[in-house]
């Protein structure tokens, strides 16, 4: 199916475990983004990528790692999950700065 | 630097009433402005955007917004609310450069009373 997908949609993990959230888009958009959504904070940018093999930090990058070996994929890894990383994570992609298209989100609970 | 202020966290209107969701922005460069809507358990969907040209922008589902540079505002309106408009609404601002990033407001939850 065309569009932007995220997996898993729901994830429960424990403190200290490594978790990888997947994002895949079929539009060949150059830009991809990871946000976290928390009550009272809106959406905050974690990392973004302007093209394959080019990534950069956003507003809240600590504790996260990204990679972009292929244009269509942009995985987000929590190297050692903490309770403060319990959140809803959204991936987005765009062809330009004008419009970002969002995935359905991953709800992550860290116990 | 850029920022977005959405005053209040919740707005409640009656079905058929005017919807007005306020957004003020701060930007050191000419901005692009956006409104996104998020329905429960879904991702964000673009409602409308202002980039250049006409300052009154029409979007999907009967929503519109007006860019007022002098007031640094981009308020979202809809003449007549429908039950299906109940959702969370986010205003966002970006610059116009190639690597500009979106900055979101905290969002406003719209409730529609029958």
Could you state the order of secondary-structure elements of chain A as H and E?
Answer: EEEEEEEEEEE
What fraction strand of chain B?
over 45%
The overall strand count of chain B is: 12
Task: Tell me how many strands of chain A there are.
Answer: 11
Order of helices and strands of chain B: EEEEEEEEEEEE
Distance between the termini of chain A: 33 Å
Terminus-to-terminus distance of chain B: 41 Å
Mean pLDDT of chain A: 93
Structural features, described:
The complex is a heterodimer of chains A (111) and B (114). By secondary structure, chain A is mainly beta. Helix content of chain A is 0%, strand content 52%. In chain A, the strands form two sheets. In chain A, strands 2, 4, 5, 6, 9, 10 and 11 form a seven-stranded mixed beta sheet that branches. Chain B is mainly beta and 114 residues long. In chain B, strands 2, 5, 6, 10, 11 and 12 form a six-stranded mixed beta sheet that branches. Chain B has a four-stranded antiparallel beta sheet with strand order 3-9-8-7, with no helix packed on it. The interface between A and B is medium-sized, with 21 and 26 residues.
Entry summary:
By secondary structure, chain A is mainly β.
State the main characteristics:
heterodimer; A: 111 residues; mainly beta; seven-stranded mixed beta sheet; four-stranded antiparallel beta sheet; 52% strand; globular; B: 114 residues; 0% helix
Outline the secondary-structure elements.
The complex is a heterodimer of chains A (111) and B (114).
Chain A: E1 4-7, E2 10-13, E3 19-25, E4 31-38, E5 42-51, E6 54-57, E7 64-66, E8 76-78, E9 87-94, E10 101-102, E11 106-110
Parallel strand pairs in A: 2-11
Antiparallel strand pairs in A: 1-3, 3-8, 4-5, 4-9, 5-6, 7-8, 9-10, 9-11
Chain B: E1 2-5, E2 10-14, E3 19-21, E4 24-27, E5 32-38, E6 44-50, E7 56-58, E8 64-68, E9 73-78, E10 87-94, E11 103-104, E12 108-113
Parallel strand pairs in B: 2-12
Antiparallel strand pairs in B: 1-4, 3-9, 5-6, 5-10, 7-8, 8-9, 10-11, 10-12
